[in-house]
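BACKBONE STRUCTURE TOKENS:
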Amino acid sequence: MIQSPSGQRVDRSDLGALYQNVMTLQNQGKTTVIGTESIANQAVIYLIVDGEFGSSVSGVSQFQLWLDVTTGFPLKVISYKADGSLIELVEMSDYQINPMFPADFFDQ
């Protein structure tokens, strides 16, 4: 459904799990919109999702996300443990979304 120029693919399980984990952590904490920025010449909205003290989802207590303002696709995601240590940093740019990709794909 989504592919980078180098051929890396992202499927429902990757993004679906991320979206579900972010929404679960949002329900256990708060979301702060930092503002708009640019990544790889694409406008993004930067936000931070923090779980309340002691809350985590799959070991993640904070997500920092940079979402494409048009598609909502995450161009950059950083996840942290409760102690503030980095779990993972994922960046994706120059991706192409299949035009047949349904907008509500991850809501199903």
Remarks:
- Strands lie at 2-3, 9-10, 29-39, 42-51, 62-68, 74-80, 86-91, 96-97.
